[in-house]
Specification:
The protein is built from 6 helices and 7 strands, in the order H-H-H-H-H-H-E-E-E-E-E-E-E. It is α+β, with helices and mostly antiparallel strands.
Length: 254
């Protein structure tokens, strides 16, 4: 097959204005170098001009019509155009690369999600531990069988206390003291009944034992005296008729 025959179909399409793109550029470049194809193109263009005039003028020569029809009716021939490399042989490689990229992106995203899930699980575990600890604290504070102990500094002495039980109509009195401070030599505690009106009435002398405890039971008191309160002072061992200040303990009726 000659080089001219390869462009036979393209010459006909070019003359009809139907050749475009790269094929047109290749043919035009060939026409610059090939006078025979240029002459053939001129003949085809002349024949088409005669055909165009045949619609309104005299019929063109039969030879021109036959030449053009033969050129158009020729079967396709191999064209001297650059061979385009088909893309489908590389499709498996492109697909593999796309899958590899997708796998990397998926792995990275999956790793981020796993890290987030682990962080949420850690926070949830911490919150659950805090809730369980709060429940245990509440259960301890509200347990009916819990032992409750008040602690004080070891060197501190317990606070001195005194409790007077007085029956006015009988003039009877029982007094219990605990944790009393030791007395100076030749001194004693004296209990006083402070009436609603009038002067304080002596209600007994006492000295605490080594543990600070002492008792006064039914000291001589007038009956029928309404007591406002009781008080304690430090007096001489023989006692006093009136309190010596300061008053070291005092209390009101319950």
């Amino acid at each position: 097959m000659s080089g001219h025959e390869q462009f036979a179909e393209d010459l006909a399409l070019y003359a009809l204005g139907g050749l475009q793109g790269e094929e047109r550029a290749v043919l035009e470049k060939h026409l610059e170098e090939c006078s025979a194809c240029r002459q053939e193109l001129q003949q085809l263009q002349g024949d088409m001009a005669l055909l165009a005039l045949s619609a309104s003028g005299p019929a063109p020569p039969q030879r021109a019509r036959q030449r053009l029809m033969r050129a158009i009716a020729q079967e396709p021939r191999m064209k001297a155009v650059p061979q385009r490399r088909p893309w489908w042989p590389a499709a498996p490689y492109l697909a593999a690369a796309a899958l590899a990229l997708a796998a990397v992106l998926f792995w990275k995203r999956n790793d981020e999600l796993q890290g987030r899930v682990a962080e949420l699980e850690r926070q949830s575990s911490q919150q659950q531990s805090a809730i369980e600890e709060a429940k245990q604290v509440l259960a301890t504070l509200t347990a009916p069988d819990a032992m409750r102990v008040t602690l004080v500094a070891a060197p501190a002495r317990p606070q001195p206390q005194g409790k007077a039980i007085y029956v006015r109509n009988r003039g009877s009195l029982i007094f219990l003291a605990s944790n009393m401070e030791p007395l100076p030599p030749a001194k004693a505690y004296e209990l006083w009944l402070i009436p609603m009106s009038g002067a304080p009435i002596p209600a007994g002398m006492f000295k605490p034992d080594a543990q600070g405890s002492a008792t006064v039971v039914n000291p001589p008191l007038p009956s029928g005296v309404e007591a406002k309160t009781f008080a304690i002072t430090v007096e001489p061992e023989s006692g006093s008729s009136t309190p010596t200040m300061p008053i070291v303990m005092v209390g009101a009726g319950e």
